[in-house]
Amino acid sequence: MRLNRGVDSVNFAERRDLLPCHRISVFLRFRKPFHTQIHSLSVVVLVGPRNSSSNANDCLVAVCTYQEAQNIDSMLSGLRRALPDARVLVVDDNSPDGTSEIVTSVAKELNNALATRVHLVRRVGEKGLTSAIQRGIDEAINTHGATIVTWMDCDLSMPPADVPKLVRLLTEEGADLAVGSRWIPGGADVAHGPMARTLSWIINRFAMVLVGRQVHDYTSGFIAGRAALFKEIRLRGDYGEYCIDLLGRAQRAGFRVQEAPYVCVPRTAGDSKTGANLWDYLVKGRNYVATVWRLR
Fold first, then answer.
1. What is 2-295's CATH superfamily?
2. Phi and psi for 221 in degrees, rounded to 5?
3. CA torsion through residues 113, 115, 120, 121, sign
4. I need a surface site. Which of 105, 159, 219, 249 has the fewest CB within 10 A?
5. Given a cut of 90, is residue 132 above it in pLDDT?
6. 72 Cβ neighbours under 8 A, 6+ residues apart
7. Angstrom distance (rounded) from CA 72 to CA 69
């Protein structure tokens, strides 16, 4: 393991039989009650040979977490199955439960001389979901030359197997921004109770009316986009409202936004960071509604 300017580098097993010559950066993100401070771990997965020349489809997948030691191994395994060529960059906000140590251990176990590298960046004194995702985007584009970046939750509520669907919307369908949607045919939310689903549906319908009907799931958080878009639009907000803001501004700027269905499933391990009661949902919802109103 090599330490350089706060970045630990290790190797990750490399295959070239799926999505060849692509770089995909994966940020693992997690949900936490809006009123609490959010720490994060961002995983940026680069797909493709380490020395491959840049092309129009170099992409990176992102997953932000804090204290997801019980899920990170399964998440990385799922991403390896979906994207066997992955290189991984982890940006960790000092998780005290050993999440980053697990990432390092998994990467070292999969080392070989020809493998892609896993970079571990530890953020100290920095907190926040949105800033962690933006850090991953910046690393993916500016450091690793990615032309596509995608991110998802680390709690496995967003299946890693669905990441290639979002990437294909960009590489094959010409989209600038791809959204995993629970509210189109083929999608569903079986992770949350009736209250959460109802409030989510109301906010998303409100956004469709005022912001644009191109998107059905403005609060998705399961995103893939082109670097050209992220160079023009930087993330804003503290929590999930960043997604509403991003999707709204992208449409207003003339970018093409498309959705792919996915089924949001319950986490199988660890503690949920989503609001557990009506008050938590209303606090978050207030910020979501304010963002929609600002974008109208």
1. Spore Coat Polysaccharide Biosynthesis Protein SpsA; Chain A (3.90.550.10)
2. 80, 5
3. positive
4. 105
5. no
6. 28, 41, 65, 99, 102, 103, 154
7. 6
Chain center to CA of 181? 14
Say how far apart CA 31 and CA 160 lie, in whole Å.
Answer: 17
Go through the chain and tell me how many residues it has. Answer: 296
Lowest mean pLDDT among 112-126, 149-163, 194-208, 247-261: 112-126
Phi-psi region of 48 (alpha: psi -120 to 50; beta: other; left: phi over 0): left
**pLDDT class of 206 with cuts at 50, 70, 90:** very high
Which of 170, 179, 238, 230 lies closest to 204, judged by CA?
Answer: 179
Residue among 288, 264, 181, 169 at smallest CA distance from 225: 169
pLDDT one-digit tens code per residue, 83-95? 777 666 777 788 8
Mean pLDDT on 250-266 = 97
